[in-house]
Amino acid sequence: MLYCGYSYCQIGTIISFMREKSSFILINREKKPTLSLSPDHILVTPNENGSITIDTIRSLKEWAYLKPFSQDEKIAVIVDAQQTTIEAQNALLKLLEEPPRQTILLLHIDDEKNVLPTILSRCEHITALTEFSELIRWDESAREASSAHHLLFTVDSLFNDDQISYKDRFDGANEISNFDRQEIITLLDQTVTAIHRSQFSHSERAADLSQKLLEAKIQLIQNANTKLALENLLLKIYGT
Fold first, then answer.
1. Are residues 101 and 13 in the same domain?
2. CA-wise closest residue to 35 among 135, 124, 129, 130
3. Residue 174 is part of which domain span?
4. CA 18 to chain centre
5. How far apart are CA 126 and CA 5, in angstroms?
6. In terms of domains, do 41 and 80 share one?
7. How large is the C-alpha radius of gyration of the chain?
8. Pick from 161, 144, 145, 146: which is nearest to 55 by CA?
9. pLDDT digits over 166-204, tens only?
10. How many CB atoms lie within 10 A of CB 179?
11. How far apart, in Å, do the first and last CA atoms of the chain sit?
């Protein structure tokens, strides 16, 4: 589901509100929304070239159809969605046509001009939500938060390991290490499942990745330090 708005956005009784509505658009040229840290939340921002690519949207779609880790609903926010390439917007449109019931998608833009009319037409425009929530809030620091910690373990990333920088890999590992240990174990399990369901499932790379992920899971079950276990896993997967 797509949630957006004009002028300003206060995300309040979002869960009850989403049961009545399905899609909305947020336009704000001065502020950008951000999300609280959770494995059920993902924040997508433009890359270093100022674009949101089709690979990123594919990873988002993959994430969107996974079951929530610990909450009833998952929330994805795309910041500066007007920077999404046309190819990526077409991929996003397919997600809007068949939205997963458990995922809320908030699309933030600063201008309608660079967004496909087909995407805009699928959104109900609202002015604001009257109550505020800590789940989605204005990013007062105006910093661009990385979504690398959510994308590290998608099939696209694992089989195209040049799309996430070395720094983002370890920044992501550091953020994931703050999650509950069981949530990290669930993330690794779901990653293995996604690999087995992918087009790469019968490749040597898939078998190797699955083995490394399961080894990391065992380490975590045995109470290994989560940050060190994740960093070691990323070194094994992506190299230096």
1. yes
2. 135
3. 155-238
4. 19
5. 5
6. yes
7. 18
8. 161
9. 777 777 778 888 888 888 888 888 888 888 877 788 889
10. 20
11. 38
CB-CB neighbours of 99 under 10 Å: 17
**Are 172 and 148 a contacting pair, CB within 8 Å?**
yes
Q: If DSSP codes are grouped into helix, strand and coil, which group holds residue 197?
A: helix
Do 97 and 202 fall within a single domain?
Answer: no
Q: In the block, which residue shows the tokens 């449109």?
A: 93
Indicate yes or no: pTM above 0.85: no
HSE-CB at 226 with a 13 A cutoff on CA atoms is 16
Q: What's the CA gap between 78 and 108, in Å, rounded?
A: 6
Count of domains observed in the chain: 2
Which residues face 76 on adjacent strands?
Answer: 42, 105
SS3 74: strand
Residue-wise over 2-31: b if at least 16 C-beta within 10 A, else e? Answer: bbbbeeebebbebeebbeeeebbbbbbeeb
